[in-house]
Amino acid sequence: MKVLHGIHPEDFKQYDTQKIREHFLLDDIVQDDALNLVYTHYDRMIVGGVRPIEQKVMLGNFENLKAEFFLERREMGIINVGGEGIINLEKGEHRLQKLDCLYIGQGEKQVSFSSVNASEPAVFYILSTPAHRAYPTTLLKNNEAESGEMGSLETSNQRTIYRYIHKNGIQSCQLVMGLTILKQGSVWNTMPAHTHDRRMEAYFYFDVPENNVVFHFMGQPHETRHIVIKNWQAAVSPPWSIHSGSGTSNYGFIWGMGGENKEYSDMDGVAITDLR
Questions:
Q1: 2-274 architecture in CATH?
Q2: What is the DSSP string of the chain?
Q3: Is the per-residue pLDDT at 266 higher than 90?
Q4: Is the pLDDT of residue 14 over 90?
Q5: What digits encode the pLDDT tens for the residues 145-177?
């Protein structure tokens, strides 16, 4: 499992494009018939994905976890952004349509991923954070999730936010997870920008049309940088960094956080006119 170490914001100021991509972009996490995970030193979050086509893919263990099994001291959130998929656990299976979310609590020993139809495979995006107690494994359908409209077409950021794992939704130790869908004609996400020093965040972009990209903005509010991101790629955002983006088309993205609390509204806002 690849490891990403933490970066100090003063060091980050000296990074060129390639170095920023090496330390913050996860560009190959979705692979066919293979589970690909990255261990970050930002709140010990693990980010990954799998696209099972011809076979069932098992969640294995990793030496750097120093655990008896993967979820011995961890919890996990999974959102499907592809065709119908199946996640098998010790006590049965869960079927996820596109945009459904499954939370798996601490202590689950057996997890596997498969697709219902190989011609329309599932694409599972995975986040895992340390956990100190077991919460119930819970499946939440997209149409049952708490949602809300934000932004406007006039400011190119009209969007629908779906909250799955959060204080008022699926219960967890520290994992927070949801997704945002940009309306047609809108391209900006997470504006006004903000930081939250108490939590890190990871962004996973999906439904980015072919030959289109998203410019993901990060850095301290007065020292912003960007990463050009394609479909099924993710960016890791440290607590000191803004996290926002603008695409050449509308798209969707999954946001996930780990850290001090589960308050979705815990944000340190930055005025658009104060960005540099």
A1: Sandwich (2.60)
A2: -EEE----HHHHTT--HHHHHHHHEE-S--BBTB-EEEEESSTT-EEEEEB-SSS-EE----GGG-SSSTTSSEEEEEEE-SS-EEEEETTEEEEE-TT-EEEE-TT---EEEEES-TTS---EEEEEEE-SS----EEE-GGGSEEEEES-TTTT--EEEEEEESTTSB--SS-EEEEEEEPTT--EES-S-EE-TTEEEEEEEE-PPTT--EEEEEEETTEEEEEEE-TTEEEEE-TTS--EEEESS--EEEEEEEES---TT--EE--GGG--
A3: no
A4: yes
A5: 999 999 999 999 999 999 999 999 999 999 999
